Structure formats: structure tokens, C-alpha cells
Amino acid sequence: MMSRTTSHALACAFALACSPALAGVAPSRDALDVEAAVQSNEAELRAHRAEFPQWFAKAYAQHANLPAGSLEAIAYSASRWTHQIPDVRQESHQHQPPTFGVMGLRDGSGGFSDLLSQAAQASGYTRQQIIDSPEANIMATAALLSQWLGDRRAKPSRIEEMLPELTRMSAIDQSKRGTISAFAAESYAFDVLLAADRGEDDQGIHVPEKAIEWERAFDLPALKRQRAPFVRLDLDGDRIDTGDSVFDPVSGTLKGIEDGTKSTDYGPALWVASPYNSTRSAAISAVTIHTMEGSYAGSISWFQNNPYSVSAHYLVRSSDGQITQMVRESRAAHHVGVHNGYTVGIEHEGYVSNASWYTTAMYNASAGLTRSFCSAYAIPCTSAYNGNASSGLVLLPTSTKIKGHQHYSSQSHTDPGQYWDWRRYYNLLNPAVSVTKLLDTFETSEGHFNLSPAYSGSTTGIGTGSTSERVSSMHKNGSWSEQLMLVDNTASSANWAVRFLSGGGAPASNSALTRANGYVGFWVYSGGTGLTAALGIDDSDGTERSTAKSIPANTWTYLEWRLDDSAQWDAWVNGNGAITASSVSLDAIWFYRAQTSYTVYVYVDDVTHRTQ
Could you tell me if 68 and 208 are in contact, meaning their C-beta atoms sit under 8 angstroms apart? Predict the structure, then answer.
């Protein structure tokens, strides 16, 4: 549910220059080409973020009890490193109250804690300085976090030891916290830790990658609830056994714990009840796409307790596509006015002024949810909007059943806005038969491959200094590719086996792939000899790994494997060597090499699925 939020593209101390694309001002053309618009937005954001690293460094110098990387991770989770200055004079449209600045501070409205005033008191900056200046916003937040740590005499060396402070940063009132509020605050903290765990180095954002010891922050039920990527413990069998529960760090699944929070309408979703719903006036026949103009955690709290009785059926998290249901599908949520009676509403985390919130994981999760509506309520997936994105109100006919908040009559909301890729969403809802689908092109983002090559619990031989990032200096198609810098682990003599994860290792975060007559492949370039590559595919009964193929040095080569050819798949510890499900997903690209002390660079472009 979108409101107009003023964000600023070039920020210095107390005088900010306003950028129309960030401020929510309509561009000269109402209908925009999404890819060009996203690239323009990224260029503005890169300039906007240029001075942030020096301010983070200054904050750490003044507050030595803050673990390295904690501020960057909070800023990424809260704002995607965007200094937001909401225009509080404008109509709030009954969505969750705004957050202020790069660190996402609340002002005390809507039942959230007044972190702005607390930060002002802790730092000596005024509230207005903290609102206006990204430097003051960062410094004041650092002072507040440092004060909180001092209050409990904590000197954490790792960000996961800051769990009490991270939940307080959610601004969900501690004194009123019930089970649902506790879940929302936990979700906020989890997302910050996930940002630190994965790291980020793109478009001017640099969050240092720090392997999170998840079990130090959360118990096992919480890890399951929050879809923790894996727990890093060196135990036999590469798993954790606790009573009747088993957590597998490779597949990211936890069995044996049932915490009663699952949705009964849509299996992959969690269930957190909102009291704001009513009797439907008609059968479900349409789906409404929203943008929260806020955080996932904040929306969960807001839809559980707000003065306007607003709600939505489902919420989707940006970082990993986690879904929480808050209103039963049989009931009307309060999300699109006079159209509540016959629609299902999906809220997507983020802000319409910043394209980076709309991630591959979010698109995939949302499309999977909408496909379930199409199946359950006889809504044709082909009735989804398949045109240009826009920044304003655009009335679409009732025959368009899957569309944005901005496309309905009698509305003032303009979400999901100019960066929502409707054609991409349409293709996810209506996967073509016998065609080639580009899974990841690396042109505007890292897509599914947003983790470093050293992230996986199955990777051996390479060190934590190994990185992956988008580069424009080397590419096969388009203007960008993904560069992997593989650095030897000097403490090990093991041969290299590198599992470059897709979708964080969670099958639900990846695109569904047809097995019958299906092929998966990618372009690859290596600056050295001796490398081979393979694929990992998530099947219904495990992760299957393909045979390995050689990578010639100093030339782009296209490698491809057929999904329904058993000769191309091997049995290994996590799979039986047979792909049997009709629909599967890409788990990872594997690289192998004999151990070497040299750093090896590998480039990947255009990961593709085709059927014939």
C-alpha cells in the first residue's frame, strides 16, 4: 500500500538534492521500460550511496562496542541504503507509519517506538538533523545502539550477539509485545542477520560478508520459522540433531518440529492472524499486487494492530521470498477499498522509489502464490496484466484479473509502481512451452546468485576471501556477467569443490523448471586451465548433481545438461542420481579443480532453461 515517499539521490550533511525517480515524482513518460528505468534508478542510487561508507567508518571509530558490519547490515535491511525522508504532510493512506533515513528509524507514530527521539537523546543531534542528514542518521543510530549495548554491559564481537538490540531496532513496542509482535521483531532481526550472512557488494552497497552462527541467535523452532539458510556447525553428517529434529544445512530444511505457524491455505506460507477482515461479498475472482512502502516485519505488526483496520491476505519478504499469511482467503482483507469483497491481496516488502526491493526471490515466491490462486479459484493466469509499468493511476478493465493496486477504480495508491516488471511476472505465471527462458542474465542484478561462492556448507578447498560480483568488464551477452574470484583455503590441501548457490539454497526461491525435454545450461569463461563444472538440481526427493564438463581456458563456452537423461546425473550424498519430478529447480552451479595456491577467476553469463 504505497504512499509518496521523498528519497534523495545525492545527500550531504544537511542539504540534499532531490531526485525525481527516488522522490516518487512521475517521470516524463507515464509508461516506462522497466529495465531502462531500473538501470537509471541504480545509477542514481550509486551516487546517493557514495559517502555512506565513510560515515559508517566514522561511527565505528566513535563507538567501539559495535561489531564490524552491523550498521551496514541494518541499513541494508531497513532501507537498501537509501536515505528516505517521508513527506508527513501528505495523506498517509492508512498504511504503516513511515521510517526515516538510511537506518529506518521510526518516529513513534502508529504504536511503534519513537527511535528518532531516543537516537537524538543518545547522540546530541536534533530530530530534524537525523531526519535530514544521512550522516546524522547513521551517527545517531550508532550512538543509540552503543547506549543499548552499554545498558546491558555487552561488548559483542559478532552481530548475532546483538539480538536484543536488533529486535529493539524494529521499533515494535517491547512493553506491548505479544506472540505476533515477537514474531515480527524476530523477523526484523533475522533479516538484518541474513544481510550480514550473505553480504552485498553491488550498486554502491557494501555489506561485509560475515558467516552468521545462526544457532547462537535463534533456537531451532525460530530457525525453521524464519527459513534460516543453514546452521554452521562442524558435526558428522553435516547436520544438527536435537531430539527428534534434524536440520540439514545443505538443503536448508528442518524436520521434526511443528510450531503451529503454518498456513492451511497455502503450504509454503507462515500463519500470523490479523483481526481486520470481513465477510466476502462475492467469490474470489481477482488478485491485487501491492508494495508495502515499508518493511516486512513492520507490516506484520501493523496489520495486527492499527487504527484503520487495514490488512492484506499475504506478505512477501524481499530478501528470500518468505511469505506470511494474515487473513484467511475465505475472508475479505481490507486492502483495496470497494474491491475487497472479491480480491486476494499480496503485499510486497519495499518502496516503489527503489527498484532493488523487487528481488528474484520475491518475484518467484509471489508468482507461485498467485498461481495457487489461479488453480483454486479458476482465475486465468493469462488474465494477468502484461504491459508497461507506470508510476501513476492507470485504470485497467475488469477482465484483467491480476493487477496492481494502482489499476483499480476509486483508488489513490500508485503501487507497485514504475519498477514492478509486469512482463516478467506474467511469464512466471504463464511459463512458455518449448521455449528458452533466461533464468539469470546479471544485467540489472545478481538474480538468484546473490551469495558468495564460499557461502555453501558443501563447498571445500576455497577460502572465505572468495567473492562473487557483477562486472561489466567481461561478458558474453548484454553488458554484465557474474565474476567469481576463487581463493585457496591455505589451511586445507583439499581439492576445490565450489557450490555456487542459486536462491540461497531454498528450492522455493528458484524458478520452476520443466524436466521433460528440459535443458539447463550457462555460458562460462575461465582464465585458467583444469576447471570443470556441473549442476545441482533440486528434485522432489533430494538434490541431484550432474556429471562434470570441462571448461576450456580463455574462451566463452556454453555448457548444458538434459534434465531427463539419467546418464547425465550421478548419485551422491544428497541425491540418488535420478531426477523424477515433473517440475524441478536449479540448486547450484558447481565448479571443481585440483587444489592450487593461485587465485582463479571464473565468469558466468546467461543461465538458461529450455525445452524442446
Answer: yes
